[in-house]
Structures are given as structure tokens and as C-alpha cells.
Amino acid sequence: MKFKLLFLLVLTFWITHAVVYGQRSQSLIRKSPLGMEIFKEDSLYIKFTYSRMNRQKKVVFGGIVPYKKLWRLGDDEAPEITLTRSVYIENHFIPAGTYTLFAIPDTSQWTLVINKEPGQYGLFKYDPKKDLCRINLPLYRSPKNFDDFTCYIDTTQTGIDIVMIWESTVMRIPIHWKP
Predict the structure, then answer these.
(1) Of the candidates 105, 100, 118, which has an alpha carbon nearest to the alpha carbon of residue 171?
(2) CA distance 117 to 101
(3) Rounded distance, CA 91 to CA 176, Å?
């Protein structure tokens, strides 16, 4: 009797452990590699993290990423931007902090969505009430096709641009600040 009870206790513990930690490790498995871009100048530090999704020979915009629908700008976690000082994106004031970025792609421009809730995975807990702002940005075309969703920081005369490229579609997020 004691052996059966001990066996059932161990079995219950093992099954509970496997289920709980199996689910936890499942959510930590990344489908796409992590990308990160960092800019530092004096007291301004900008860190942009995103997932480098691969299109795997599929049509991206108008295909796996539909037009006129909210998109998390990559795969896995929605990308985040951390700012140690207040900046401007276009003419929108963005206070220092960490924000999640989304976009609404279209054929000639995108709407960049800056959301005040960091740490979001996909669109599951997206709340439009937490949007700091929405900014319309023009699209550009690259002469080269990019299979991986690629981002980099480009220094400009007025600040920096976070440049996002996938296929031949390019979006530039212009960021500037006051000294």
C-alpha cells in the first residue's frame, strides 16, 4: 500500500512537472533569430529589438502580411524600442521609456503604431487604448530583395532613421532629438 501511494505521488509530481515546464519551455522556443540595433550619443541611448523572420520564398506584403491589418513587425515578440531621453518621431513627441512597435502596412505608406505596453508577444494582448500615437510613414523600394526581415540604424543630418527592409519594401522611422 505504501509503495503504491509513493508511486502515485512520484508519478503525479513527474506529470505535473512535465506539463508545467513543458509549456514554459514551449513558449521560450523562438521561431526567428533575435535582432538588435543600438545607438548611443551622449545621454541618449536607443535600443531596438526585433525578430528576424525569413520569408521562406513566400510573398510577404499582401501575402503572409496582409495589407491594412495590424502587424507586429516580425515574428515571436513584438519589437520594442527603449529610449533614455525624449525624442521626436516625425513631429510626434515620444517620452523616454520602452515601447512596443506595430505597423499597419499598405501599398504606398505604413502606419507606425507606438504602444505603451512593453513585453507583448504577437498581437494576443494588443490594446489600442495603450497606443501612444500612430504615425503615417512613406514607403521606399530597395533595388535588392531581402529574404530576412532586416533592420539597421542609419545616421542622418537631423538624427537617425531605423530602417526596416523586407523583400524590396523599405520603411524608415525618422528619430530626432533636441541637444
Answers:
(1) 105
(2) 10
(3) 9
> Mind listing the pLDDT tens digit for each residue in 81-135?
999 999 999 999 999 999 999 999 999 999 999 999 999 888 888 999 999 999 9
Say if CB 45 and CB 39 are below 8 A apart: yes
Kindly list the distances between the CA atom of residue 165 and the CA atoms of 115, 116, 151, in Å, as whole numbers in the listed order.
21, 24, 6
- Cβ atoms of 146 and 54 closer than 8 Å: no
Cα 4 from Cα 18, distance rounded (Å): 21
How are beta strands 80-83 and 87-89 bridged, if at all? unpaired
Decide if 99 contacts 81 (C-beta within 8 A): yes
Is pTM beyond 0.90? Reply is no
Q: Do residues 164 and 75 make contact, with C-beta atoms less than 8 angstroms apart?
A: no
4 plus 45 within the same structural domain: no
- On whether both 37 and 25 belong to a single domain, the answer is no
d(CA 149, CA 60): 10
151 with 63, same domain: the answer is: yes
